[in-house]
Amino acid sequence: MVAEDVMGKVKEMAEAEERYAKELRELAGRFRHPVLQALIMGIAQDSLKHAVFYRAVHELLSRVQPMLSEEELEIIRTGIARHIKMEEEMVKLSGRLAEEAGDPRLKLIFRAVYEDEMKHHSLLVLIREKIAESETFTEEDLWDAVWRDSPWHGAPGG
User: Fold this and answer.
1) What is the pLDDT of residues 125-150, one digit of tens each?
2) Are 84 and 125 in contact (CB under 8 A)?
3) What is the dihedral of CA 42, 48, 51, 56, to 10 degrees?
């Protein structure tokens, strides 16, 4: 599939996810059961999240993305490291609550939270390892471009 096809498809998918989220919010507003409302609203939120992801893919394919500075990378590293630890704690807590819940309704909710926390943790680790590092232009990269990667090694014209 070529980039233009993907761009068109993800734009359609983003719009569909936004419509779906709106329909789910409306559905949840038509009854008063708090647990069912929470579950349906959670799915609606995920649909909005998916729309954001699809729009990000469209943006990624539409133009060259800016490189991260070393300062921005440090902000991301610090923030993500903190949130990875928080997610680890939430995974443990929600997993324990899901295991210990006797009420199947509570078990369902705690299990849904646990699975989301597992995904969040994995995604944060991947962001740290695969995206933030590769999208950074460091001072070392600059000097490599000037000296090591240049056929003249920094000298004018050879």
Assistant:
1) 988 887 666 655 666 665 665 566 55
2) yes
3) -100
